[in-house]
Prior knowledge:
- The complex is a heterodimer.
- Chain A is an alpha/beta fold.
- In chain A, about 40% of the residues lie in helices and about 20% in strands.
- Chain A folds into two domains: about 5-185, Rossmann fold (3-Layer(aba) Sandwich); about 270-375, Rossmann fold.
- Chain A has helices at about 10-20, 35-45, 60-70, 80-95, 125-130, 145-160, 170-175, 245-260, 260-265, 285-300, 315-325, 340-345, 365-375; strands at about 5-10, 25-30, 50-55, 75-80, 100-110, 115-120, 140, 165-170, 180-185, 230, 270, 280, 305-310, 310-315, 330-335, 355-360.
- In chain A, β2, α2 (about 35-45) and β3 (about 50-55) form a beta-alpha-beta unit.
- The longest helix of chain A is centred in the middle third of the chain and has 18 residues, at about 145-160.
- Chain A is globular and about 75 Å long.
- Chain A starts with a strand and ends in a 5-residue tail after the last helix.
- By secondary structure, chain B is α/β, with parallel strands linked by helices.
- In chain B, about 40% of the residues lie in helices and about 15% in strands.
- Chain B has helices spanning about 20-35, 55-60, 70-80, 95-100, 100-110, 155-160, 175-185, 200-205, 215-225, 230-235, 250-265, and strands at about 45, 60-65, 85-90, 115-120, 165-170, 190-195, 225, 240-245.
- An eight-stranded mixed sheet of chain B has the order 2-1-3-4-6-5-8-7, with helices on both faces.
- In chain B, α1 (about 20-35) packs across α7 (about 175-185).
- The two termini of chain B are about 35 Å apart.
- The mean pLDDT of chain B is about 95.
- Classes of the chains: A alpha/beta, B alpha/beta.
- The interface between A and B is large, with 44 and 41 residues.
- β10 (about 230) of chain A pairs parallel with β2 of chain B, so a sheet runs across the interface.
Amino acid sequence: MPKETIFAQGNEAVVQGALYAGLDFYAGYPITPSTEIAEILAQRLPQAGGRFIQMEDELASLCAVIGASLTGLKAMTATSGPGFSLMQEALGYAVMAEVPCVVVNVQRGGPSTGMPTAVAQGDVMQARWGTHGDHAIIALTASNLADVFLMTVEAFNLAETYRTPVILLLDEVVGHMREKLVIPGPGEVEVVQRLRTSVPEGTDYHPYLAREDGRLPMSDFGGVHRFNVTGLVHDMWGFPSNDPAVAYGLLHHLVDKLENRAETLARYQDFFCDDAEVLLISYGSAARSALHLVEQRRARGMKIGLLELNTLWPFPAQTVRKYCRGRGHVLVVEMNRGQLHGEVQKAAEQPERVYLANRYDGVFISHKDIMQVLHVVLGKGV
Amino acid sequence: MNTRRYIRERFFPHLWCPGCGHGIVMSALVGAVDSLGLSQNEVVVISGIGCSSRMPGYLDFHTMHTLHGRALAFATGVKMGRPDLTVIVPMGDGDAAAIGGNHLIHAARRNLDLTAVVLNNRIYGMTGGQSSPTTPEGDRSTTAPYGVLDPSFDLVELARGAGASFVARSTTYHAQETRELLAAAIAHQGFSLVEVLSQCPTYYGRKNQGGDAVAMMKTFKQITAPAGSQRAAQDPGLITRGILVQEPRTEYCAAYGELVRELSGHEE
């Protein structure tokens, strides 16, 4: 496959990234503004020898994805707010059973049915804490098509590396906007394949016994190793256990494998940050307006920069703390009531200098919206 | 047959109550698999949540204990991923007909080659005896202390209506028949559902003066009759047993594989 340049929609960039990463199974249910992902895959997957199925609801969609993943396939589903709510049950199962899979949530206005065709970033905390119980999760995001592609590949890579569901948390603007996308050639972007056990047939294979490096090699359903998978607290055999030591160890493992690697998992980009007195922190489509403002103000001599986060969870607190250090003002730009703002405040050494520029009315935040807040923050009036 | 070959003895004793019928169904299922000569590596057993759903853990196949009601959805992913594998889905009556009702009707409609085994004890056992969609009208449970007000589901009719291409019913009293029906269901190309009436003396029996396990099994003998038999014809109040639906219909994975071949020349 030679390098190819296309003019595409964000949702199509997800499809391109997923196919590049080796997607071979998709199950989903139609919902705005993510539906194009299902529509394009319904056409492309059977052509490529992959499998596509439209399920009866989002509950079933993620369950089917988990089942397919256990047979060794790279599997994904895509949805938006209400469907993401329904998926929380199976998301927790994938966390607990450590099944690699990718869940795309193209965010729209909420709560409930909210504003189906309007942009929002209100599911940031749901991505982190939507499913019940203590757990850790990976959530990635992007603001442009090149990054949507890369973060989709990355989502599959991290899912396989850490045996975890990965959430690709996009938003309506990124999902529906169109721009140029250069599809990398084969080998240009790393694609991580599943780590399978080297335990030979006839020798006991423990599906939940971590290697020294913390990774758990897998064995496909239908292969030579037969084991149990459950959403209950389980031992190294995958068999249910009520032993407090087993429960303690499992919870530690599930949280630590990601939270202890927060900085390794941190994907971010900085723009004009070196001498910036004002630091904007943003992500997803909101980061486009933030970058617009930074470039515009830099042209007029203002010392302003942008930290764009591509990893939202686990939250890269050390990175954010480092970037916030010594700045006059930090402004978090997002389209919700301050869901990541609170995390930045927790991370920053001077939380009183962390402000919020946001919109939550279904309208895409503009550089002017951010500038208005910045004026107030800098004491220049409204 | 060497039953122990199919059992994970490491995980015994099982958690089913004394007198529970589920062990009889498990034994019949193992017997069915054995009679078909399937290799253990070719069989996947996937359950939801409930008493019956603990079955896969005890069986030495590829096994999955999933979410309440959602076993068929997980099974759909497994079967699509590996159409060559035999996928068996033991379910409870609450699991299949209440929380999983939507997945059940769509699995039947799609005709994916899955074998759903509904162990119908007419009660929620794991949570301590609440009524399920198959608790007969008027019977008692901890959540229906004055008797169930709503009519119960007939799982066979539900599956037939949803388009299942193979539907059968038996009881734990008829263990040999259950084994044969399960073997026929597994061999069937397409979605199959086998309902097995299973006794729960601990909750359903106690709440409804059903007696002990033996008495409840004898009741299964009295209230059922083979489909097409003279007894069944004479008494329409009896519950029919045997193969009740068997219609060849295109299996979903086969249809999908055909589509892939048409589009790309790829072999599924």
